[in-house]
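>> Question from a student workshop board

For tomorrow's exercise we were told to take the sequence and the ligand below, predict the bound structure, and bring the output to class. My setup keeps failing. Could a helper post the expected result so I can at least see what it should look like? The ligand is pyridoxal-5'-phosphate.
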Amino acid sequence: MKQVYLDYSATTPVKEEVVQEMIPYYTELYGNPSSLYGAGLVAKEGLEQARERVAKLINADSGEIRFTSCGTEADNWALQGVADALQKKGNHIITSKIEHHAILHTCEYLQKHGFEVTYLDVDSEGFVSPAALEAAIQDSTVLVSIMMANNEVGTVEPVKELAAVAKSHGVLFHTDAVQALGNVPIDVKDLGVDFLSMSAHKIYGPKGTGALYIRKGAAIHNFMHGGAQEAKKRAGTENIAGIIGFGKAAELARENLDAHIGHSQKLRDYFWQRIQENITGVQLNGPGTAGRRHPGNLNVSFDYIEGEAILLMLDANGISVSTGSACSSKSLAPSHVLDALGVPITKMNGTVRFTVGDFTTAEDIDYVVDVLTKIVGRLRELSPVTGQEGW
Ligand SMILES: *Cc1c(COP(=O)(O)O)cnc(C)c1O
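>> Workshop helper replied:
Here is what the output should look like for this input. Compare the format with yours to find the bug.
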């Protein structure tokens, strides 16, 4: 059966060039970069080259990149590390209602430990307003954390404007750029952010590797305690092969950025056009396709049917997608993101997230639209509420 993967925001396949660069670090180049003999130095060299490649992708200095085990760790570190470092200055943090759980659940943890958190509302397309941020800043505010691109509905936040507001009040600014990396041009110097989270497996690199950009001089405490790795800022023997893979993936992402964005956008727009031509009762959630939206993201509500049912029937046809957020799709709670956008519960239930990427083709989209049209028709025939008021 034909297989079509349309869940690039959940994870991406590791590119062949990336795997090829990683393999030697599992076999002959297995030295510990902290060791002082030859094998250690070779690993250390690889580590530093990867750091430079990741730094270059976001226009940072390589000394500002600290590797972590994933994007989630980078988010936890930014929030808890700044909260620790600045607890004498204040106990207030500002974030948004549509952040990834790596941010929201860390904020909840900090609330249990004496911090106060303001969760900013977003508009119907998912945008955070710089004016609302300005109004929320207090004397006790130590950190603002607003994501760069939303993982469910693709909203690309005005991070530069938001960071400028924080800076004008002397408040540090963190952005979760895990979805934005490789999909939106990122220049940390131009954006004016103090911290930025990244993850390798969303940019065709391996799982289990991420990084936190820490602007030189920005106040943050350590999160992992132990050895002297990562300039004594993040202890633990480095996942060298993973980091090598992240470095290669970052290099490819930088070289292919324009082509990748163009390819994703073209197929995403074609997909949405074909859905609208073939299926009635559909609604796009998040910004319009011509707006400030992640180039590969399509989040669609189908009237009268359950997103889960669509997902399972697409899966039976070899097509992988997700409903709402991949991370919450195992729970029955509606998506906190769609909820914050004001999507009514009836539409929320019928929502599917499709995300395209480098290996998606127009033939894939044609196949998916054919299958999807049949599935939606069949499910609506079975739906007891089709056409009824209240849906
Ligand atoms: C995937 C994702 C994360 C988590 O990254 P991991 O490397 O999987 O831990 C955090 N934030 C956003 C926006 C994401 O999409």
